């Protein structure tokens, strides 16, 4: 359920309602039955837990801060079942196979089995081949209405080739595997052999195009992460974990960004592992001006400068300002912070400080 639905339910019940994710083991420890289904509930001392979706080994629940009567639990459970379960009989064979594959991937990721290979029992294994481009799609719909599998598949096929598999993972999250032929099809230069940098540029463009297509069709907040071509039978679990981490880091360090690329968040991955107290202290100790990054012009200038590899002329073009105006801004930063971003060592330090400041001061 999205925030709006949770708030509406809370108003009806006159109680706080929040979303919560539990494992099957945690559910059983709280007194729930083994292998719970959508609509099952546990009444604890001060809260009631109800399953709204089963995703692999995870249970997506709502936690209601109230003691519900038996009738209230039955009615709410019935409503959840009606709203959250799509009739299996209407699903195609491909959708059922894709959902089984998605459940297996989710279980493997949760168990930390990142090197697991797709087992032979998975019917979809026969449609996996060497050289498939992985996209991770996360859509947080405004109305909490997840598009039907067939509708989303049709939309995706209108953008990329039919040799594409759509695999549901968690709620509002899908893995898309497409033939790496889309890279040569998208290559305007028509080169038979693409270099590494050209491949990454094409992948970024494809992800951007897919993002525009999905948001235009379904609305809501949508995030796309893309990886380089893989052998999915061997690497599908690992790439799902990698793209999830990439999306998490992108949303954490670069608010407002919707397309996320693993090769652009190496530094963010490193900084994310530093304890929050250490990050905060480092920022406070290194900043000559504590309020430097509160200036939106300064932040946008530095973001553009670093995205253009510290090239003054290209940064000025990106910002639509005169080169001298950019130099004035950089000199101002040097005067106020004591750090010259045109110097390699200072540029590295400012880049780190900017990333850390974004996450430490946003809390």
UniProtKB/TrEMBL annotation:
Q: Report the Gene3D superfamilies cross-referenced here.
A: PucR C-terminal helix-turn-helix domain
**Any single Pfam family the record assigns to this protein:** HTH_30
Q: Where does the PucR C-terminal helix-turn-helix domain lie?
A: 299-355
Q: Where are the transmembrane segments?
A: none
Kindly provide the name given to this protein in its UniProt entry. PucR C-terminal helix-turn-helix domain-containing protein
Report the source organism.
Cohnella abietis
